[in-house]
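Why does residue order matter? Because the sequence determines the fold. Keep that principle in mind as you read this record.
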Amino acid sequence: ADPRTIGRALGVRYLVRSFVRREGEDMRIGVELIEAEHVRPVWVGEFDYRLGQAGAQRQAAAYIGRTLVAELLRAEVR
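Structure:
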């Protein structure tokens, strides 16, 4: 779907798009922060964790959340 259309429908300036890919016992999460109106990436990052590692999924989610907040604040300052 078109980010501009989604942004307008939701009344938001930024969207987050992501993917999750399994590579053996490793999980890779790709995250992209997009400025909806101009359909341009503001920030892109990848995060990895190993399946079966205690608390790894929770830690990865928390790290992604903190990183997104920081990048969103940077984008707003610009």
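Residues 56-77 form the longest helix (22 residues).
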